Amino acid sequence: MNQIKIKSGGYEFSFDTQKINEMGILKTSADSTEVLVDKRIIKGKVSVDAMVARQLLVDLNGEEFLVEIKSETDLMIETLGFNSAKANKIKVLKAPMPGLVIDVFVEEGQTVAENENVLVLEAMKMENVIKLPHEAVVKKIHVAKGQAITKGQIMIELA
């Protein structure tokens, strides 16, 4: 199930597709929206030109909030530690989700550059290209093309 995470004012809110579909959303003008959530109406305005790097300036009932929106992909990247400029060097590359290995682009003993494609993992009918956050040497490959894998399973060891 798709999920997004919203951060604002030190708080985090998670919404899945079902929860979003349950909301009653009514656009009242070009920049105003009313949302019916749990029998409450929330009136808001979104400053579209304030959208930078998935951040929005939102006015809810006269109070402004800077809102950061993260998709499921953003959350996966954050979980893997690929979002930091100086990511810690990882020794093993684990599956971020269950899926099917579509392709493996590396071989044992190969030096892989930072952000180079390592493999493709299909999950929920989407192909996810897995890259390394830093340069490394492939020590051992634990998966093969066409193999089904589970979340957290070691795919590649790095030296």
TrEMBL record:
Q: Which domain of life is it from?
A: Bacteria
Pfam families for this protein: Biotin_lipoyl
Q: Which Gene3D superfamilies match?
A: 2.40.50.100
**Source organism (scientific name):** Lacihabitans lacunae
Domain Lipoyl-binding: from-to ranges: 77-159
Keywords of the record: Biotin
State the signal peptide span.
none
Q: What is this protein called?
A: Biotin/lipoyl-containing protein
